[in-house]
Structure formats: C-alpha cells, structure tokens
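Render this sequence as a predicted structure.
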Amino acid sequence: MRGAIVILALALACGGGDDAPIDTDMDGGPVDPPRVDGGPLSFGDPIPEGGGRFELIGGDWSMGPGGEGYRCVRRTIDRDIYIRELNPIDPNGTHHTVVTYMEDSSIPDESIPCSVVNHAPKMIFGSGVGTDPFVMPEGVAIRIPAGSQVMINLHLFNAGREAIAGHSGLEVVTVDPSEVVHEAGSVLAGDEFFTIPAMASDYWVNGGCTMDEETTVFALFPHMHQYGDYQRVYAQTEAGERLIFEDTYSFDDQRYRHIDPLVLQPGERIRVECRYQNPTSSTVRWGDSTLTEMCYAGLLFYPPLPFGLSCTN
C-alpha cells in the first residue's frame, strides 16, 4: 500500500507550558512574537508508571482576528507507551490537528510556528471540531516506542473579530503492555487534489485505500470541511462491495465511530465517497484551509501498517 504525504493538521494535547503564542499577519501566515516569560517550555505531563491518564503533548497559542496559522510541538518519550484512550483538547480556534511520531529524536523538542507540511511519518490520531474522546476495544492499543518523538501540528483559525487564545493538545490513557493483544495504527483514507465546480450541488468525490496485508479495521472518523454534507464508506472484498458506514456530515461534529471489526485481505480496499454543495461562484479546491475541502475517512486498525499519514490509491 502506498501512503501519500498529506497537507493536513489535526488536534493534539500536552501539559501546560509557556509556549510562545502564535499570531498571524494579514495573509494568515504565522508570525513569531516574543516568548512568553515564566520559565522553560513544558512538553507534556510525566508518563505514569504502569499506565494512567496524562496529557501527552500540546501547546498554548494566541490568534488575531481573521488569523490562520500553525504551531508544531515535539516531545521525546523515554519509555514504551500503549495508548488505549484518546481525549482531544480542542478549544475554539482549533481547526483540526494531526498527531504523529517518528522513532528517533534527532530534532530537538520544541514548540515553534510551522507550516501545513510539517509532520512525522507515523500517524497516531487526528481530530477536528467536535471530536469526542475515543476508547479502543478491549485489548487494543497504539504503541509508541521508547525514544520516539511525538509531534503535534496544530492548525489554528480565528473566524471572529476578536483575538483569541487557548491550549490545544491530546490527553491519553495508557495501559500496561500485559493488557494489550493487538497493537493498532491509524491512517487517512480517501481522495486528494480534487476540485468542486462553482455552483455544484450533490457533487461526489470518490477515493480509497488498498490493503497490502491482512488488516482489521475497527473504527473510522469522517473528515471534510464546510462544503461537505454526506459521507459513505464501503468495503471492497473478494465477496463484493458492501456499505459499512453512511451518515450526514457536519463540520462541527467530527466524531470517531466504532464499527464491527472488518477483516480485509491483501488487495482488498476501503472506498470513501464524499458529497459536497458549492453554492458559490468559485471553484473549491482541495487543501487544509476551512475555505478549501478534504475527503477522508480516518481509519483505526490492527496490526499497525506502514501507511504514512494518508492512503489515497
């Protein structure tokens, strides 16, 4: 399977520090203001022995009226962790976030302004507006190896006329490795680089992800922006195609859904359909901004596979 590199950012969390806030210039690009005083940066709560609840990673930020920008936070962890529960911290102004990791820490831990393309190669979790806590099935957890560097890319957007500030990140609950039967992974499946014509109604985009080895999918996360209003997800198997999820879509209600465990064999595929309404006189293009569009079903599955951030074949 091939994983494309996605231009995306979703929500994350980490222990309260005094990260430098983000403001933006008139074009929406990040501007790096002076550091907030008060001591060294903090990248997360201490990791509890044997499992427990803590804030893995996140950052403080501020955003001027109409501003849009990104902040990236990196944190190296000193032991293996097995994540069973994910609780996004996404106050107003958090457009969406992506939590990823790499199995080394060659880049210093830091909290800095960044861009949409800054991600580590392995995905942990993504969230959007309205994403609620997600608990894995019994015996399933996402493993992050000791020495790995976790990274959050916060996409921040202030649609209002007043400056706002907040702290966005990801709180997790970890378990002892003795409780884990299946190690899980995550990927964004769908389509990229599409356009939606001006004045289009009921316009469908179709994409998907093909498996390279036996894979069990147990949850999904619909993700579009403000022109999207419906999503369908299918399993394409040797026995034929069957619908596994469909629902209306709201940008303000982006929740993970448990599904009956679905076993896919090598060469079988998840197909994603997204429907859009574009009442404007302009073409809407694919991209990370609220004013552009995406078509993804985030998948949770086991075993973890080397998809990268997205799979759109």
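Summary. Residues 1-40 have pLDDT under 50 and may be disordered. The domain at 185-311 is CATH 2.60.120.230 (Jelly Rolls).
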